[in-house]
Amino acid sequence: MDELELLKKDWNKESTDFKEYSEKDIYNMIKNKSVSITKTLLLIGLIEVVLWSLYGYLDQEFPYIRIAMFLVFTGLIIFLFIRMKTGQDSITLMKSILNLRRLILGYAGISLILLVTNNILYFDHNVRDFMAGWNDGLNSNSSIRVLPTNPDAIVPVLGNYIIFGIVLLITFYLLYRVYKRTYGRILQDLRKNYKELSYQDEK
After folding, report:
1. Distance between CA atoms of 184 and 190, rounded to whole angstroms?
2. Is the Cβ–Cβ distance between 103 and 72 less than 8 Å?
3. Measuring CA to CA, how many Å separate 130 from each of 2, 144, 146, 172, 187?
4. Burial, 19: exposed, middle or buried (Cβ in 10 Å; 0-12, 13-18, 19+)?
5. For 14-122, where are the alpha helices, taking DSSP H only?
6. Cβ-based neighbour number of residue 114 at 10 Å
7. 126 sits in which H/E element
8. Vertex 21, ends 15 and 26: CA angle to 5°?
9. Residue 170: its pLDDT value, please?
10. In sequence order, what are the residues at sequence separation of 6 or more whose Cβ sits closer than 8 angstroms to the Cβ of residue 128?
11. Which range (17-21, 64-68, 142-146, 156-160) has the least confidence?
12. For the purposes of burial, counting CB atoms within 10 Å of the CB of 189, is it exposed (0-12), middle (13-18) or buried (19 or more)?
């Protein structure tokens, strides 16, 4: 539990030995917490790009758009990170927090839109790849060495499309849950910081 959370906890206690915090102390706590959240955000973004690059390597298609998007995202995060560390007033920090929240929402939203769009545009190709991978997985248990299945030689039927569509929807849902638990948690923390700053500014 960080200092800011401990301070909130102490506010609810009726104690004579309550430690008094100045406005500057509270500001610095919120500032340090926001800087820490920004570092975490960069780490999560980096892990995400590594995982998508690995997926692209296995699919023999390097994710250039995602890498370019991440580089722009990283540059903006570093800019906001510097503003947070060097900012000396609550207004500047609040603006940085708001911009960071918008940036996270935009990045997460674009990432999910790209994923959905890609699977819609290449749905037929992905179904063939899925069937080829499934077929190769079944043949791997065989003692006879079989050449990898050529996806282009496969002719899917309606049932194949339905099964792949169900798998895809489950995958989208799981990814949504992952995004909600990572980026959603960061957004909540930033919102708390912004509310604390607004409260102090109003006082």
Report:
1. 10
2. no
3. 47, 22, 18, 16, 35
4. exposed
5. 23-58, 64-86, 90-121
6. 15
7. helix 123-139
8. 130
9. 92
10. 151, 152, 154, 156
11. 17-21
12. middle
Give residue 67's pLDDT band: very low, low, confident or very high (50, 70, 90): confident
16 or 31, greater pLDDT? 31
- Averaged pLDDT score across all residues of the chain: 78
Contacts of 38 (CB under 8 A, 6+ apart): 77, 80, 81, 84, 100
CA distance 166 to 162: 6
* Tokens 């895809």 found at: 168
Q: Report the distance separating Cα 56 and Cα 63, nearest Å.
A: 6
Rounded CA separation 159/45 (Å) = 37
Question: CA-CA distances (angstroms) from residue 194 to 26, 55, 93, 115, 118?
Answer: 12, 36, 9, 31, 36
DSSP symbols for 170-201: HHHHHHHHHHHHHHHHHHHHHHHHHHHHHHHH
This prediction has a pTM of 0.68
Q: Which of 39-48, 116-125, 126-135 has the lowest mean pLDDT?
A: 126-135
If we measure between CA atoms, which residue out of 87, 90, 81 comes closest to residue 42? 81
